[in-house]
Amino acid sequence: MNERKVNFTIDGQDLSAAQGTTIFESAKSIGINIPHLCYHEKLSIYGACRVCVVEVKGKPRLEPSCATLVEEGMVVKTNTSRIRRARKMIVELLLANHPEDCFTCDRSQTCELRDLAYNLGIRDLRFQKARKYHYDLDETSPAIIRDPNKCILCSRCIRVCSEIQAVGAIDFVNRGGKTQVLTFFNKGLNNVDCTTCGQCILACPTGALRERTAVDDVWGALSDPKKFVVVQTAPAVRAAIGEEFGMPAGSLVTGKMAEALRRVGFDKVFDTQFGADLTIIEEANELVERIKNKGTIPMITSCSPGWIKYLEHFFPDLKKHVSTCKSPQQMFGAIAKAYYAKKIGVEPKDMCVVSIMPCTAKKFEAQRPEMRSSGTQDVDIVLTTREAGRMIKEAGIDFVNLPEGDFDKPLGISTGAAVIFGATGGVMEAALRTAYEVVTGKTLEKIDFEEVRGMQEIKSAEIDLDGTILKVAVAHGLSNAKILLEEIKNKTSPYHFIEIMTCPGGCLGGGGQPMPTNEEVRLKRAESIYQEDRNKPIRKSHESPAIKEIYKDFLGKPLGKLSHHLLHTHYIKRPRY
Ligand code: SF4
Ligand code: SF4
Ligand code: SF4
Ligand code: FES
């Protein structure tokens, strides 16, 4: 940004800001949140909805504050009767074209359009319903449902998909009243190169995008006397699910969450972090083996299914760079059915494994044909954090005042290394804690790798493994991943090991997390995750007693025959559109 300063006033306050700052941003800096719809803090300016209009002295028209830069001597008003009338009219026109089903809408509690209508004092609908078209829902995806009837054409989903995720699976088609957001040739999200990341759901201000809910499937399994139903919860869920119950962003609620799930009726409450510790053992050993045997490097982490689908569509030639380790969710599912079910005398077909994930892409991943190593689908049902929150509410559980519960053994035992999987850089750090000791045979004294933490878009570091220098990089958000992948493609990548997470901030910013999920909220959830790591008595995956036991009792050794069968996978090439 230009460092030259300009002086201006907003609502009578004298201000100075760098040239290039918008009126919207300047107003925000003094605590004025101008109502808006198409504006999004992390995306390019679209400037189409005009809800954010303000008066600028000397200009005959109201100006969109998100798309207008401050100028020397500018005099801005953000709240006059003319402005309020204009904003109200815009929102009333949107409502005239919008279904009136807030009662049953997935977003009824978090809809920005409904909030705006309320805040602007719209209490009756002045305009006749203007809607001419009824569009079919896009229900092709196992993870995401699009309802074009609720779309207000703000383009936030289009921009997040192309600018943050470098995918571009959706765009505007047609003109005027027939304008719609659609996939290529209206083939449906499942039939194009959508990664199922769900970032568009988080960006959408209305109920036009939502996850495909599986809550009723879980209630069905819980009421089936023949089913033994176990639940696993991903690391990032414990740092976010409290928000569904009005708790402050990033509240760490591990114990309450375990207790709530037990009261919902699951037979066993387990932890995906057991799967994360297992992933680290396999992945750290895979990395060491690739480096020792001059295998394909850089090796890239594989636990984010949105990233894996992106690779399969956009960079299939780089498949051999990706670790063959399944994600923690899928390792857990395979172990639950192939090991734990047998141990307790339950047939794998009678066990139902439910996952609670911060992620919509995990719904897609669980259904991949490769994920049936136990002889049946390893993970049966995936709920997002939001769906799990609704389920707990439906059961009438007073989440906020619950006592602290605990996970069941043995698949509920985990380490600090596993919890940091929820934050960008966490898988890398967890792997380094184990790889160091595998390579050197020495105890790692300083186990915090601060260099790979934080929200910087791409982080890189050189890690000294007792004389062997390991060059590592971490990217979150697929547009950042693309930069590292292009380097590999061009044979200029200097790295040995790369972590890629689909979602900004990692899973704590996943597409299934409570709304809002923004930069401020992501940082708070990250703090909780690192706090949980510090609280854990054991912080290295290979020191987990549950992990030691499963290798002794069942798996044998890392990268062994059984591990390969249950814990590793392969990737396919998918088409581009
Ligand atoms: S789920 Fe992700 S990839 Fe698919 S349309 Fe939405 S933002 Fe794009
Ligand atoms: S689907 Fe949602 S985010 Fe996308 S244009 Fe429509 S209202 Fe905006
Ligand atoms: S980063 Fe996490 S939430 Fe996002 S797609 Fe990957 S696994 Fe899912
Ligand atoms: S928020 Fe500024 S024009 Fe839409």
Secondary-structure map:
Elements: E1 5-10, E2 13-18, H1 23-29, E3 53-56, E4 63-64, E5 75-77, H2 81-96, H3 112-119, E6 144-146, H4 156-164, E7 170-173, E8 180-183, H5 199-203, E9 209-211, H6 215-222, E10 228-233, H7 254-264, E11 268-271, H8 272-292, E12 299-300, H9 305-314, H10 328-343, E13 351-357, H11 361-366, E14 381-384, H12 385-394, H13 416-419, H14 426-440, E15 458-465, E16 468-476, H15 478-489, E17 497-501, H16 519-535, H17 545-555, H18 561-567
Parallel strand pairs: 1-5, 10-11, 10-13, 12-17, 13-14, 16-17
Antiparallel strand pairs: 1-2, 3-4, 3-5, 6-9, 7-8, 15-16
Helix pairs in contact: 8-10, 8-14
Bound molecules: iron/sulfur cluster (SF4) (3 copies) and FE2/S2 (inorganic) cluster.
Question: Which key features would you list for this structure?
Answer:
577 residues; alpha/beta; 5-stranded mixed beta sheet; 4-stranded parallel beta sheet; 18 helices; binds FE2/S2 (inorganic) cluster
